[in-house]
Structure formats: structure tokens, C-alpha cells
Design goal:
- This protein is α+β, with helices and mostly antiparallel strands and 466 residues long.
- The chain folds into 2 domains: 166 residues, no CATH class; 225 residues, no CATH class.
- Helix content is 42%, strand content 13%.
- The chain is built from 16 helices and 11 strands.
- The strands form 4 sheets. The protein has a 5-stranded antiparallel β-sheet with strand order 2-8-9-7-6, with helices on both faces. Strands 1-3 form a two-stranded antiparallel ribbon.
- A hairpin with a 2-residue loop joins strand 4 and strand 5.
- It binds adenosine monophosphate and magnesium ion (MG).
- Adenosine monophosphate binds next to loops.
Length: 466
């Protein structure tokens, strides 16, 4: 039996934090994808996991020794409306593994069958959305952005029924934790202050042991979210479903649904088919993160001060750090993208305005600056005046190459890989994952993967696939 170094702290929390539930076995486990590099990082035996036993574990048919499978309770504001009972409707936390470096990670199966929290859903997932999460989460990791990781995608030998019958799959997700703003909301909405207190202590011990009490935890999460959202904007990432149940206390990007990267730059960009009002548009993400953090703060009020008004004042003061911290990370990141050591807000703003005006490709426009440093002859006429000001600030081409990826998971390439894999051809997926594992390297022969979509290749909408 393959051994995992489990130590399951969540299963030691009070019983009403979760329901105990094993993954529901599937007809025929297969291993579509194993992340060998991640397995090695986690201290797991990739060769063993690549075999039949690994497939059985990743499909949910074999519960490894030491796992204590459970479905977590949580609530969430979805597009602004509160749903008191969400929870893991199609996911199972197998347990927490401890790496050789002593780090603790959740190991979760997603698409592993019905649970107490499934409501009308089938508890299952289709191969496309699970591979999509695999591709984009691993691309984010390679870009240096905090994210949950993807260890494996298993096939089930079963169909799931959405608009069509689609082959089913189970994703194995690795996360610093699955604590969400919605986890706190679940207990706060029930007036269960003891549970919120226990959760605060658990989250603090797990994510910021040096932080002082509930306020210390809150400030830590505000800072982590501010950094995260700035990093999203700096690579052109749109999460697409920033509901409070998809907002992780760890500061990791979590739940890759209808997410997408910008090709052309425009702050109003939305891809998600369910985001009609543009609530989660690219440029709205800082505002929404702050809104989510306000919901988090509300759950903590009884712990911040016995006097309610005092508690609100304390929370508001801490939340006011969000815009400051976001702006600091965003501006220093934009400066580095321009090859500059110090923030240059005017240059950055004017460059983004030019990109938006000309609907220029976000990723390639920044990357191209590396070659433009010493070559004014290459300047497009519309950018000439800006470029002269920028050169006067002394940009560094090596910094530009180190900060701006040449490769992002472009929607049309992701769709191409998912369509082929669903039909049994994993070659485009293999190539895409390989390219995206080294996003900052020039990769001769991979020019197609750095090219924006032609008009007819453009993906205008993405779907959550639930
Ligand atoms: P998500 O859109 O993946 O963040 O999921 C939002 C909520 O819906 C979570 O509580 C999920 O567990 C639940 N959910 C999503 N898809 C399914 C499904 N196929 N079956 C049961 N529950 C689901
Ligand atoms: Mg979710």
C-alpha cells in the first residue's frame, strides 16, 4: 500500500465542522495525468503513484491508510447573495500530508461523488474542467503566484451529464488549506461564536502562528489577499467567480472555474458566461477582494471587542490597509514589468491606457519592451512619445524578461488542449503544460504558444462546468 505522511488536524476539529464521508468509487479508474514534479516536492513516490494503485487512490476507489476522508462545511456569498449551506458538494478532503520540509498541505479529491452538501448536484466533474484547473493552477505556480496545486487527474470510466454526456474525472488538489471566508461565515451565520473562535485559532496556528489573535489573523489575510490580487492583475488573470467561498484564507488562488487570462488589455474584460453584470471583471477584482474581506471581518466582530461599535472600528481600520497594500504591490510590480527599479505610476498608467486604447496584447506588449529598450526604431508611432519618457527612466531589459512571461495559458490553447484530451489525444495538453512550466524562458519552436489568437480562434466566453 502506498503510504502518505498524513496528519489530519482538520478531522480533529469539532464534528459539526464537516461530515465524514469516503469518496464514492468509480467504474474504472485510470490515470490521465500525474504531476511528478509536484509529487517529488511533496516527498511522495511518483513511480508508485503512476501505477494502478495510484489510479485507484486518485479516482477515489482506494482510501489510503491514514486518510480520514471528510467533506467540509462552508457558506458563501455567490455574486453578492448569501448561501448559508454550500460545503464540499463534490470534494473530499482525504487528509493533510506533511512534506519533508515540515510543511502541511491538504490533499483533496474534487469530483469524487455526492456528499451531505451536494444539494441537487451529482458530486462529479467532467474531464475538461478538471484538466482546466490542472493547466491553469500549474501555470500560476510557474508564474510564482500563490495557488493551490494539481497533483493528478484520474479518469472514472463514467460519464457525467451536463449539456452533453462528458467523460468524468477526479482532480487531486493540494492546498495550504481549504479554509475559506465562507468557512467562517458558516459558523457566524449560525451565531456559533465558539466555532468561529476555534476556527480562528486553527487558521492562525496553520497560516500565521506569529499573528496575535483574531485581529492578527485578519490583518494577515488582508495582506495576503492584497498581494495575491495585485499579482493576478500583473499577469492579466481573471478569476471569474470571486465568491466568498472561493476566497482562501491562505492567500492562495483557489477554484479555477471560468477563469481566464487577458489577451487584449481592457480593464472591463469578462469571460465568464455567468458573470452578466461584470461583477468579477478584471479591473474589479481588487474591489471585490476587499468586499470579501469585509464579509470575513463581520464574522470576527464578536471576537474583536465586546462593544460592537468598537469592534467595527477595529475591523475597518485593519481593512483600510487593503488598498494601501494592494497599491504598493501593484505599483512595484508594474514598475518591474517596465524594467524599472522604482514605482513609476504615471508611466505605468499611461502605458496601460495605450494598451487599452489600441486593444494591444497585454502579455506580449510588456514582453516586447525588453527588445525595445535599446531600439527606438521599433516603436509603434502611437507609443513613440511614451517610449521616449520610458527610456529616460532607464529600463533594464533583463528585468523585463524576468518579470513578464512569454507564455501564459491563452484561452484558445487551453480550449484546444481540453478538446483534444476529451477525445483521447493528450499531445496538445502535454506540449502546453511543458511550455507553461517555463513561462519566462524564450522557447524557440514554441512561437505558436506565444501568439495571440487570430480573430476566428478567439474564446469569448468561459464556463464553470459545474
Ligand atoms: P464552485 O462553483 O465549484 O465553487 O462550487 C460552488 C458550490 O457548488 C460548492 O458548494 C460545490 O461543492 C457545489 N458544487 C459544484 N458542482 C457540484 C456538483 N457537480 N455536485 C454537487 N455539488 C457541486
Ligand atoms: Mg468553490
Amino acid at each position: 500500500m502506498i503510504r502518505f505522511p498524513f496528519d489530519n488536524s482538520y478531522a480533529r476539529l469539532p464534528e459539526h465542522f464537516y461530515t465524514r464521508q469516503a469518496p464514492v468509487p468509480v467504474a474504472s479508474p485510470g490515470l490521465l495525468r500525474l504531476n511528478r514534479a509536484l509529487a517529488a516536492e511533496l516527498g511522495l513516490d511518483a513511480d508508485a503513484l503512476a501505477g494502478a494503485e495510484g489510479a485507484a487512490i486518485f479516482a477515489g476507489n482506494l482510501v489510503p491508510d491514514g486518510a480520514e476522508p471528510l467533506a467540509q462545511a462552508y457558506s458563501g456569498h455567490q455574486f453578492g447573495n448569501f448561501s448559508p449551506k454550500l460545503g464540499d458538494g463534490r470534494a473530499i478532503l482525504l487528509g493533510e500530508i506533511i512534506t519533508p520540509d515540515g510543511l502541511r498541505f491538504d490533499m483533496q479529491l474534487k469530483g469524487s461523488g455526492r456528499t451531505e452538501w451536494s444539494r441537487g448536484g451529482d458530486g462529479r466533474a467532467a474531464i475538461g474542467p478538471m484538466l482546466r484547473e490542472y493547466i491553469i493552477s500549474e501555470a500560476m505556480a510557474a508564474l510564482g503566484i500563490p495557488t493551490t496545486r494539481s497533483l493528478a487527474v484520474a479518469t472514472t470510466g463514467e460519464y457525467v451529464f451536463r449539456d452533453d454526456a462528458l467523460p468524468g474525472a477526479v482532480l487531486t488538489r493540494i492546498a495550504a488549506s481549504h479554509l475559506r471566508v465562507g468557512t467562517f461565515q458558516y459558523f457566524a451565520a449560525r451565531g456559533d461564536t465558539d466555532a468561529v473562535r476555534a476556527l480562528v485559532e486553527y487558521a492562525r496556528a496553520r497560516h500565521c502562528p506569529d499573528a496575535d489573535g483574531p485581529l492578527g489573523l485578519f490583518r494577515h489575510v488582508v495582506a495576503a489577499q492584497a498581494r495575491l490580487i495585485a499579482q493576478w492583475l500583473l499577469v492579466g488573470f481573471i478569476h471569474g467567480v470571486m465568491n466568498t467561498d472561493n476566497c482562501a484564507i491562505s492567500g492562495e488562488t483557489i477554484d479555477y472555474g471560468p477563469c481566464a487570462f487577458l489577451d487584449e488589455y481592457h480593464p472591463d474584460t469578462v469571460f465568464s458566461s455567468i458573470d452578466h453584470g461584470g461583477r468579477y471583471a478584471y479591473g474589479n477584482q481588487p474591489r471585490i477582494a476587499q468586499w470579501n474581506l469585509a464579509r470575513f471581518a463581520e464574522t470576527l466582530l464578536p471576537l474583536l471587542d465586546a462593544d460592537e461599535q468598537r469592534a467595527v472600528d477595529i475591523a475597518q481600520e485593519a481593512l483600510a490597509e487593503f488598498p494601501t497594500q494592494f497599491e504598493a504591490t501593484y505599483q512595484s510590480g508594474l514598475a518591474r514589468k517596465l524594467g524599472l527599479a522604482e514605482p513609476a505610476p504615471d508611466l505605468a498608467r499611461d502605458f496601460l491606457a495605450l494598451l487599452a486604447e489600441h486593444r494591444a496584447d497585454f502579455t506580449n506588449s510588456f514582453r516586447a519592451l525588453a527588445d525595445a529598450v535599446d531600439d527606438p526604431a521599433r516603436d509603434a508611432p502611437a507609443f513613440a512619445e511614451w517610449s521616449a519618457r520610458w527610456r529616460a527612466a532607464g529600463p533594464d531589459a533583463a528585468l523585463i524578461r524576468a518579470t513578464n512571461p512569454a507564455f501564459i495559458p491563452r484561452n484558445h490553447l487551453v480550449e484546444e488542449a481540453l478538446t483534444a484530451a476529451t477525445q483521447g489525444d493528450t499531445r496538445p495538453l502535454d506540449t502546453l503544460l511543458d511550455v507553461l512550466s517555463r513561462p519566462f524562458d524564450d522557447q524557440p519552436g514554441r512561437e505558436r504558444h506565444a501568439t495571440p489568437p487570430r480573430r476566428e480562434e478567439r474564446v469569448l466566453q468561459t464556463f464553470c462546468g459545474t
